[in-house]
Amino acid sequence: MKDMAGPTIYLSDYAPPAYLVDEVHLTFRLAPEATRVLSRVRFRPNPEATDKTFFLHGEQLTLISAAIDGQPVTPEVSDTGLTCAVPDAPFTWEAEVEIAPARNFALEGLYMSNGMYCTQCEAEGFRKITYYPDRPDVMATFTVRIEGEEPVKLSNGNPGASDEGFAEWHDPWPKPAYLFALVAGDLVNHPDRFTTASGKDVELNIWVRPGDESKCAFGMEALKKSMTWDEEVYGREYDLDIFNIVAVDDFNMGAMENKGLNIFNSSCVLASPETSTDGNFERIEAIIAHEYFHNWTGNRITCRDWFQLCLKEGLTVYRDSQFTADMRSAPVKRISDVITLRARQFREDNGPLAHNVRPESFQEINNFYTATVYEKGAEVIGMLKELVGDEAYDKALDLYFTRHDGQACTIEDWLTVFEETTGRDLSQFKRWYSQAGTPRLKVREAWEDGTYTLHFSQMTPPTPGQPEKLPQVLPIAVGLLGPNGDEVQETTLLEMTEAEQSFTFPGLAAKPVPSILRGFSAPVILERETTNAERAFLLAHDTDPFNKWEAGRMLAKDGLIRMITDGAAPDAAYLGALQATLADDSLDPAFRALVLALPSEEDLAQTLFDAGVTPDPEAIHTARERLLEAMAAELEPLLTRLYHDHQVPGAYSPDAGPSAARALANGALALLSRRDGGALAAQQYAGADNMTQQLAALTCLLIAGKGTSEVQAFYDQWQADRLVIDKWFALQIAYAAPAKAAAVTEALTQHPDFTMKNPNRFRATLGALAGNPAGFHANDGAGYRLLADWLIQLDPLNPQTTARMCSAFETWKRYDADRQDLIRAELERIAAQPGLSRDTSEMVGRILAA
Ligand code: 0A1
Ligand code: ZN
User: Fold this and answer.
1) pLDDT per position as a tens digit, 362-371
2) Is the pTM higher than 0.85?
3) In this structure, which residue's CA is closest to atom 11 in ligand 1?
4) Which atom of ligand 1 is nearest to the CA of 298?
């Protein structure tokens, strides 16, 4: 797009910083409208630098004074920072600036949330706090003094002196500015302690607003489990005397790994049985682990520049998924991860926002905290581990931690430790970081004289800026089943490196049935001509839980696609296979709940588009509804049994076992509600003593077109709990009938509890609309218009959240010409707003350029 966005930054332009920092001293004199920040920074020239310009980032700051080695100076100040003449030797920089946290609605830098001061500095928010080289390759120790009347005043590292009006903190571990944090307010703590493997005693706290104390216990247990797990599995101990977590209501993302002071969106840490679902509990446990694991992968070893974001995020997501697999069910975790990968990352990779796991340019780095960097970044690590094996992975990680501790690193550093410990050449593997798009993997088979052959070919479609693609290294896990269902070839790893490659399996008594890409061993789209009989066979016999599930999913999808495109009737073979799987009580109820869930409308739209069919959101919705009705009719007795067999007696526990039982029972309830008009759901609603049961029942009532009184009762019961009220907003929109979705959303934006200033509430409302595909894409364009109206209103306050939500439009090229015209008009209307943020300009520009 023209010049509406900011300048583009390129990886290839990287240059080392001109000055390095040894120590930073910061003093904060807190006041909502006029906080003073005093900085004293010890700089020294970087011998590695070629450009010697002294430049400090700084935005939206009022400079009060500056001095070098005690002598006042008058720097040249611009919108983005300042320059100043400095000595060609170590020197001390001092500055005083003024900022207004109470007027910071972007939630970046120092801001206020419910009267509490808090910070968010990743990626480039520190420059809104004071003048500083705000780049991750400048690492320094921080000493912080906070002056203010707030009873609790926190920063990174270990506590120093404190008294009523002040508190001091010192962080001995050098860190980039993006890991700086400060919190001050009227907070209460849930305390605990942890002794590390080497005997170090650590104080732990979760800090919350008064009233939320009872929602901290689960998060604290998750933290202690994470600390133990990282010691046992990665040999990594915690390294400070104290670890603080703070819950904040107004937060753009999930949580932030600031050194020793993690800041969490309250929705990602506060939990209680009455207010949180099983899904919330699992997510909270995973996010606490994720942020904690960053202490080593991100903080002790950080990124040289923001292009290397996947170095910390891909690895940390990979680590947190290993943790969840260990704490709960590994197959269920893998299947759930692949469902999200396909829903979010494949969607991104196959649209206008496709980008490399390591991007090579950006205008606003905040737009690159994406499913590709995080989730595909984690898949790349999983593939690497598959290829080198578990032992070599552990050796490489040990070398990574010892060699790079205290450094700001690159993907090259990461791959080198693997090359050195394994002797492998990873130059082709590195394409996973530099080539966007989801590879298509085609398979053909041949059977001759007892030898079975798989012929593979791979192709990655063009993505923006990358018309030509090269073959990737694909680890393909394969097993073979004999005609009676026995495994005749256990899982073996095929390593594909060419565009076309064949693998043979000799000495077989009969033509086998292949189970390809077990465990989803590579993030590709597998294309294979197969039959539904074979899928049903794999669903019944595959020993690999992922492929067993995948077979059921393909069966469901195939039937749905025929219903959508040919008006076919629900597939009896699918219903039979489903019945057999659900009835098999030897299978984990969580697995059966996943088998019971149909592919989403979004997934079907993408599948149709891939097959060259323009998806009709309404037709997709209708077909899916018809299949659900058929499932309910066909399986009613079994569903009734499953529902009753999986009621969990006694006190609520969020553990995997009881959660799995509830998932299956509530999956059954959703279908049974289509038979009994919601009678059983109403009964469950009335008797529910936890949010999982209450919310599941309410959802069923809404789908059954009932629940008006329960919706009101739910609001009355939970009015004072902002996180539950977010659910209340989201639910009504997510399950609104397509034709009414935009109107329901609009009405809810007029509700007194709606506010666009709180990102959770905004997402619960407008995000829920985007998540109801048939409603959002209703052909009158009302959904598009409403979302665009609100994005336009939010952008001046909170560019980050606005920009992220523009991705609701990223799939626009899939749809028919009328819908494309409607969406283009809305995107152009957003783009034409005077003063549009750099964040939103970049997103809209990239989407429109499709
Ligand atoms: N590093 C955090 C995610 C995060 C990124 C940006 C933020 O503000 C713009 C906030 C959090 C994580 O991976 O958890
Ligand atoms: Zn992270």
Assistant:
1) 999 999 999 9
2) yes
3) 256
4) 1
